[in-house]
Amino acid sequence: MKYETVMGLEVHVELATETKLFCSCSAKFGADANENVCPACCGMPGTPPVTNKKAVELALAAALVTNSKITPVMTFDKKNYFYPDLPSGCQITQLFAPICRDGWVEIETSEGRRKITLAQIHIEEDAGKLVHDNRIGASLVDFNRTSVPLVEIVSNPDFRTAEEVVAYLEKLRVLLSFAGVSDCKMQEGSMRCDVNISVREKGSSELGTRTEIKNMNSLKAIASAIAFESGRQINALETGSEALVQETRRWDDNIGETFSMREKEGVADYRYFPNPEIMPIEIDDAWISYVRENLPEPAHDKFIRLTEKLGLSDYDSNIIIGSKNLADIFDGTLKHFDNPKEVVNWIIVELLSIAKGDNKGEDDIKIDCRKFAKIMELVDNKTINRAVAKKLLLLVWKDGIDPEQYVEENQLGMVNDTGLIEKTIKDVLVEQASSVEQYKAGNTKLFNFLVGQVMKKLAGKADPKAINELLAKHLE
Amino acid sequence: MQIDKFAGMVKFSLSESERATIEDQSRVLVDSFGLLKNIDTDGVDAMFTVLDIKNVLREDVVAKNISKETLLSNAPEQYGGYFQVPKTVD
Fold this sequence. Notes:
The complex is a heterodimer.
Chain A (H helix, E strand, L loop, with lengths): L2 E12 L36 E2 H13 L3 E2 L2 E2 L2 E4 L9 E4 L6 E2 L2 E6 L2 E14 L3 E5 L4 E5 L6 E7 L6 H17 L12 E11 L9 E4 L4 H21 L7 E6 L4 E4 L12 E2 L6 E2 L2 H9 L5 H11 L4 H8 L2 H13 L3 H18 L11 H12 L5 H14 L3 H7 L8 H14 L1 H8 L5 H12 L6 H12 L1
Parallel strand pairs in A: 14-15
Antiparallel strand pairs in A: 1-12, 1-13, 3-7, 4-18, 5-6, 5-17, 7-9, 8-9, 9-12, 10-11, 13-14, 15-16
Helix pairs in contact in A: 2-3, 5-6, 7-8, 7-9, 9-10, 12-13, 12-14, 12-15, 14-15
Chain B lengths: L2 H7 L6 H22 L19 E2 L9 H5 L5 E2 L2 E5 L4
Antiparallel strand pairs in B: 2-3
């Protein structure tokens, strides 16, 4: 029998705000436990939530880049459940009037292009973090993440393959990070994805029993989890080895299997009701226009600019627009050194390899664009050669040195004195007389060896092109 | 009535007499909603609030208004800067 897999995605994305959704506590990641907590976000009675305007605007940006229909008057609701990471006993979210509905995102896979439709996007607050400590036999709660703003992007069950799921998540990451909505880092949890998955006979229009898979923090893990879970479900249907139940399953990346998370006490009953503490938020056309006009350049427009206006290759441009951070470094550096091809080369060839050596991905690269551009300028005006420039870049990366000052203090400037270069060449030709003879006898490979000898005597500071030309002249 | 189910969800344990009181009070409440059901609301917009206030928003600026020590001082148990609660996993 032929089966097909049917999937819908719930993607949580942390909004890039300074403060939490309903109070002025910092939303920054990585603070000491309970450092960014106040009576409001730890659920003390009598502390009403006040909505963060920026969070609404970032959610609006998410609505715009996903072609969604914006709700004219949105409201917040309470979703009730009891768990120690939720101090108020309810999560503030949107059920009845979410910020937008009916969006779509176009994806491209080996099967071509297609639209994935979205049921809705809603704004909600994150929960806290529980640490289970076996030594003291208790659980410890950190409320720093409590009430950090998220949007949850809920797709329709449009996905049939893991490739589509991965393409969609990549597309969302690019759309949202370029719109400034979120940095969308799966590894750090600022983008999280739950997959609702079921299988059915091909051609059937009814949906099978679905499970929800959680706890996948990379695209690779998501693809593996989908492969495992659809296999498990098909096997269950074919052999009757186990009964499929609607449940939440946790992906274990080390073992490579999904596990039932908990026997649910019946269907979860969240007793949603409108949150009377938060007044409705009206989103008029003027506000939508304001957000639209202030959207940063989308990745696609940037691609067109890079290829058509700046004359870069599709290949290079795709690398640059693959990461909002790289694109920002590109634009930031271009401001100080107006040579797009050089800037792209330095980013792709040098910067990325240095970052890779430090186990840093495209999104984690931090570099002072002014200093980065300065290095290119020093090469361009022949103050230093490329080899020295590469060393400088490493020093800027590691120690944040000032390239110009460093070159001056360490006398790394290029030897431009033709007389000195010629004198050095003459010395080398005498010292390496046997190599010179072999060269003249036809072993042309020795030319580069001789260039190397001259460069060595000049402490690596000469322009290789000048040595090449002068040496060729002397060997005639 | 599903008093026990709801009590379970909010982790309340009720004595027999408390249970009876709540059951009585809840019945009054549920019956009131029954009354509302009989009202013809066709063509009437849903009312979210009786207050004529909307768009209560604040700027995205960090403010710290309480110290961690004060915050934790209400906790029955704390450990190393965390709120300590009964173990939630086995």
